[in-house]
Amino acid sequence: MKSHKFRPESLMMSYGYKPELSEGAIKCPIFQTSTFVFKNAEEGKAYFELAYGLRAPYEAEEIGLIYSRINNPDLEILEGRISLWEEAGDCAVFESGMSAITTVLLEFLKPGDLVLCSSPVYGGTDHFIKHFLPKFGIHYLEFKPGESYDDIVEMVEKAGLGSRLAMVYVETPANPTNALIDLECVSKVAQHFSSPDKKVYVAVDNTYMGPLWQQPLRWGADFSLYSATKYLGGHSDVIAGACVGSKELIGRVKTLRTFLGNMAGPWTGWLLLRSLETLKIRMEQQARNAQKVAEYLQQHAKVEKVYYLGLLTPDDGREYETYKKQYGSPGAMLSFDIRGGEAEAFRFLNSLRMIHLAVSLGSTESLAEHPATMTHAGVHPKHKRELGISEKMIRLSVGVEHYRDIIFDIEQALEKV
Ligand SMILES: *Cc1c(COP(=O)(O)O)cnc(C)c1O
Predict the structure, then answer these.
(1) Tens digits of per-residue pLDDT, 266-297?
(2) CA 122 to centroid of ligand 1, rounded, Å
(3) Per the count of CB atoms within 10 A, which of 42, 116, 225, 333 is most buried?
């Protein structure tokens, strides 16, 4: 047989599923079951020996199905498919993006450790790092997009915490400004503070651009984390999360997941299997639309500034270089400052006819929201100013509708302002 490497988008319909094991059904059924029947006692014993690591597997031996908190066909097939996009060793899926993130933080941090994180990060993550982890004696330090390798290393050393650094946690592009962080640079910071007996891990929240347009593992990250609620799910009908990385590290994540019990259920798994079949065409259409919308906004008299990667030029210097190096597309998330303040922004949002006023992102329908009073309401006012999140900013998640309809809606809403 001729060898051929099928691309992820071609494998999303079938990879990892064997119809002959399910009455010939072309699609993977929903394995809505809590437990699995063993053929005999010896088989049950063997599965548990592997599940508990009591012995090494024999050649080609794999752990069988035991109980849906440990393993379930919908989840295993889904994890195999998500892994393909980043050519990762393995994936673990969760009942939410937050459970994927918190499980990784809990598994790889211990009392006394330091986590170095980029700012801003998703509100839930921010709260967990600043208000929950300190209860366990885990410290944090923050750096902002634009800070160099030297700036970051110096900050950690000045704080006297270099030997305690255990993880660098990054979100890029930053929400809602689309400011970028160079992942290769961040990986070098982690290497700098690693020693033969202590590896500093790098975890990247890849919700905004992954898995199509940014692949953190390629730049030295250990974990690529997802709110699968967003692009992976893509239809605003499911909450889910995922974490991809090497087989060894994801093995540790899955072990903690077994004890926390925050794995995705079979129905969530099945919904995501269905979503993945159209992931690429959805994301590509969304990005094409976003570019048109950004260009329209940029020339509008009532718009002061547009934050979209597709508008960067060589004049933007390092930001442009990072964009060109690290991203395969400008994506489908953009923000803009309307001339005026909160009143003008609200008037715009209240006048939209097709685009929905809602938080969340990455779905087939376009969404608009006001970061300063909604997604970023909890950010300290001074910090908001530093980050450029003002009262006049509006964030758009561009959907798959016809771009002319999206622009029509924006145009008529701007007219009301
Ligand atoms: C939504 C989101 C999360 C949280 O995910 P949930 O699925 O809501 O738990 C984390 N990070 C980013 C960037 C997000 O957009």
Answers:
(1) 999 999 999 999 999 999 999 999 999 999 99
(2) 7
(3) 225
Q: How many domains does the chain have?
A: 2
> Tens of pLDDT along 34-89?
999 999 999 999 999 988 888 999 998 888 999 999 999 999 999 999 999 999 99
177 shares its domain with 312 = no
For residue 209, give the nearest of 305, 142, 290, 130 by alpha carbon: 290
Show which of 264, 296, 331 is a domain's final residue.
264
- Kindly state whether residue 344 falls inside one of the protein's structural domains: yes
pTM: 0.96
Which residues have CB under 6 Å of ligand 1? 96-98, 122, 124, 171, 175, 205, 207, 227, 229-230, 239, 241
Distance separating alpha carbons of residues 205 and 313, to the nearest angstrom = 25
Dig out the tokens for 147 from the structure.
Answer: 């800070």
386 Cα: distance to centroid of ligand 1 (angstroms)? 23
Angstrom distance (rounded) from CA 26 to CA 265: 21
Per-residue model confidence as pLDDT tens digits over 203-219: 999 999 989 999 999 99
Neighbours of 24 (CB within 10 A): 7
- Asked whether residue 194 is assigned to any structural domain, the reply reads yes
Q: Are residues 319 and 243 both part of a single domain?
A: no
Nearest to 251 by CA among 406, 107, 399, 81: 107
d(CA 231, CA 39): 40
CA neighbours closer than 13 Å in the CB half-sphere of residue 265:
7
Q: Return the DSSP state at 131.
A: I
CATH of the domain at 410: 3.90.1150.10
Phi, psi of 357 (to 5 degrees): -90, 100
Kindly tell me the number of DSSP H helices and DSSP E strands found in the chain: 14, 12
**243 membership: H or E segment, kind and range:** strand 241-245
Q: How far is ligand 1, taken at its centre, from the CA of residue 225, in Å?
A: 10
Q: How many Å lie between the centroid of ligand 1 and the Cα of residue 15?
A: 26
Has residue 44 been placed in a domain? no
